[in-house]
Amino acid sequence: MLLQSLREELVRYHLELPHNNLVAWTSGNISALDSGSGLIAIKSSGVKYDEMSPESMTIVNIDGEVVDGEFKPSSDTLSHCYIYRHKPDVMSIVHTHSRFATAFAALGMEIPCVLTAMGDEFGGAVPCGGFALIGSDEIGSEIVHCLNLSKSPAVLLQNHGVFTIGDSVEAAVKAAVMVEDVAATVWLAKQLGEPKSISQEDVDKLHHRYTHVYGQ
What angle, rounded to 10 degrees, do the helices at 169-192 and 4-14 form? Predict the structure, then answer.
């Protein structure tokens, strides 16, 4: 079985999605790029999380063609592959329909940067791309366009959901967890009034501190 260790890592991190209430039933997926082979491991289509195993991951090439695996890959595979082809620094992609973030997507609305945690993690607002149909390069193209215009590792897609990227599987999953957390807080704030914006100058300082100073 190709990329056994990467498949096992993806199983572990897929289980973080229901654990953090980011997915329902079989929705959502994670992929990872193996730098050595250039192949991509991605969740197979329609697999339940509590039945997931390394065999539930399908291996595809950069164009989305199946190389190894018993099952069909996720219906989002071509979108993931497009991102990998156009963003060479990306090593993992997560897709969810997490409730609060997807509520913003349903409105075609970005999540405004009104929290220091957003400045830290996303370097500004979480952008929202336009509408695109599942199953082709359209979604990937829209996501790459948004990524190129912002520092955010998270992008909303209108009427669809959330895509996050990272230089590791953990980083991409962390971004998916964090975008839902801040989306919930911003939504709650909007019920009370109009959230106060943070200047871009201060957002830049927050993001630099978080990415260059914070942590061990």
Answer: 20
